[in-house]
Amino acid sequence: MASAELQGKYQKLAQEYSKLRAQNQVLKKGVVDEQANSAALKEQLKMKDQSLRKLQQEMDSLTFRNLQLAKRVELLQDELALSEPRGKKNKKSGESSSQLSQEQKTVFDEDLQKKIEENERLHIQFFEADEQHKHVEAELRSRLATLETEAAQHQAVVDGLTRKYMETIEKLQNDKAKLEVKSQTLEKEAKECRLRTEECQLQLKNLHEDLSGRLEESLSIINEKVPFNDTKYSQYNALNVPLHNRRHQLKMRDIAGQALAFVQDLVTALLNFHTYTEQRIQIFPVDSAIDTISPLNQKFSQYLHENASYVRPLEEGMLHLFESITEDTVTVLETTVKLKTFSEHLTSYICFLRKILPYQLKSLEEECESSLCTSALRARNLELSQDMKKMTAVFEKLQTYIALLALPSTEPDGLLRANYSSVLTNVGAALHGFHDIMKDISKHYSQKATIEHELPTATQKLITTNDCILSSVVALTNGAGKIASFFSNNLDYFIASLSYGPKAASGFISPLSAECMLQYKKKAAAYMKSLRKPLLESVPYEEALANRRILLSSTESREGLAQQVQQSLEKISKLEQEKEHWMLEAQLAKIKLEKENQRIADKLKNTSSGQLVGLAQENAAVSNAAGQDEATAKAVSEPIQSTSLIGTLTRTSDSEVPDVESREDLIKNHYMARIVELTSQLQLADSKSVHFYAECRALSKRLALAEKSKEALTEEMKLASQNISRLQDELTTTKRSYEDQLSMMSDHLCSMNETLSKQREEIDTLKMSSKGNSKKNKSR
């Protein structure tokens, strides 16, 4: 994404640079043309200056010559004035001199005349040259003004270009900084993306292995367990229960409920329309209360009186269809059996309309033939008769399409599945046509009612009946419009819901297969309901994770615990053996005691004196004590031989002989306490040794795991270092490419600045030259 944005920006900059370069070329051409024009103008100006100087010189020479001639003329006039009085005095004497002066005068006159003509010609030439100079000067000044304006425009263009170039340079610098920041962010994102890709590759590999294993397992199960593929054949696949779409069922039930409400409104409007039409026949054109109506109208009224038996079943059929659509069923055309009953009821109503249509047309003709009927009313009756024919035709068309839609639930070969959508579209078109016809009927009947209300013979009963018929027609129009809009709004859903059926099949094959499928669906739902049991309380996921961490981090591993259990079992077995041994010892001692008591009792029976009895009692007590001492010595000889308390006891028993019972209790308590103490010490030592052994094993396992993790981390460090080096190389290459591109752009900008500076200098020189020329022209 970032590389694409960079390429896009560079392409934009290159396009701008090419545009600026083209503009620069155009400006260069314009400057060169202006330079050529200025050079040509300079040459023309030089030529004009030279011609002007020549004319000025000629003018100066002519003025000088004119002055000379004027002076000469003045001298000649003075001489002539002086010679005239002399001639008067010397007429006689100066005839010869007068002839000479006359010749000179004629010569001077001719010369003067030539000079005057030449002077006039020079004046004319001077005037023409002056006018031409003024004209050329005006042209040059206008040209100079245009050149100055063009130079100002060029200067403004150059200033704008320089400003634009500076802005582009600043923009490029900002873009460079942004791109650098963006490159850094992109590098970070690239690192993260690489890590994610590696993780995703690992996950993909694991998933691929898992899915391949599952696929093999499922294929083996299918090959072993599945006897045949029931989706291969359409006859068997039609019996499979499709996935339950509760949303689809609720939507279909909602749509059916709306359709039921619209049909109920339509049925009510039809009942009112037929009933009020019957009442109107009894009133107009002949009132039945005053006179008998025609046999035709009587028959027509009799048929209209039976309208409820044909109209009410439509509502009942739609109600049965709505009740058949539940949440547990599968609603498609193959399973909507109740649509056939609705189609039959609609067919019976069409038969009713066909039966009453001729009578209705004849009744309208009879109204037209009555004397009360005007031409406007006759025209409305004709329009109504045409509308009634159209309404019957539309109902027949609608019944045909509904009968076609009911065929899949009864005769599967009657309608192909590919034609379902076209039939539904035609149903929508028929409903819209019914709505249009009802609008026409409402319009024409309202016009007819207004005309009849204006008749002088119109009664209040007729007016009320017409209003009721008009209201029922309006209700029919509204109901037809609602049904048409409702069907057109849900047409796409109807067409899309046709694909709702068995998996991997074109649809249900026959109504029988659809019925079997519904039975299987009910059985499956009952079975799933019987299998449903309340779930037992499970350990929360977080608690289970914590327990798992504790179990993994515990020092007592499974093997250590198993060894502890084994050792404890061995100890228990040893203790059981010792227990049995000591139980046998106790039984032997008890048997010995009983024998000794029996012997002493026999001795007591044999003796008769009291002393012997006392001696026997003492001997029995002594023997009992001795037997107990021997039994206790046997029982504890092994574990307490090393103790020091036995010696003290034996020594005290040798020195002092206490009572028999106290001595037995003392010995018994001493050995029991000693046994308990030693067993507790032994158990403590065993538990400590097992604990230390388990800790050692756990530490060794931790050490092995740490070494494995160390090796994995070293490998990851190597890969990370390689990635870092590779990314650094890529970063350096990208930086170099960016720097090269920026340097190229800076070089281009420098060259453009140089060309602009040259153009500025040329324009400044042009300005200076034009100012100098203007100053010269002004001075001239």
Automatic annotation (TrEMBL):
Coiled coil start-end: 3-72, 137-196, 558-592, 696-737
BP GO annotations: regulation of intracellular mRNA localization
Domain Protein phosphatase 1 regulatory subunit 21 N-terminal: 11-112
A GO MF term: protein-macromolecule adaptor activity
Pfam families per the UniProt record, alphabetical: KLRAQ, PPP1R21_C, PPP1R21_helical
One GO cellular component term noted in the UniProt record for this chain: early endosome membrane
Cell compartment(s), UniProt: Early endosome
Xref: PANTHER family: PROTEIN PHOSPHATASE 1 REGULATORY SUBUNIT 21, SMOOTH MUSCLE MYOSIN HEAVY CHAIN-RELATED
Protein name: Protein phosphatase 1 regulatory subunit 21
Bias kind Low complexity: ranges: 95-104
Keyword field: Coiled coil, Endosome, RNA-binding
InterPro entries found in the cross-reference section: PPP1R21, PPP1R21_C, PPP1R21_N, PPP1R21_six_helix
The UniProt record lists the keyword RNA-binding: yes
Top-level taxon of the source organism: Eukaryota
The encoding gene: PPP1R21
Region of interest (Disordered), residue spans: 84-104, 754-780
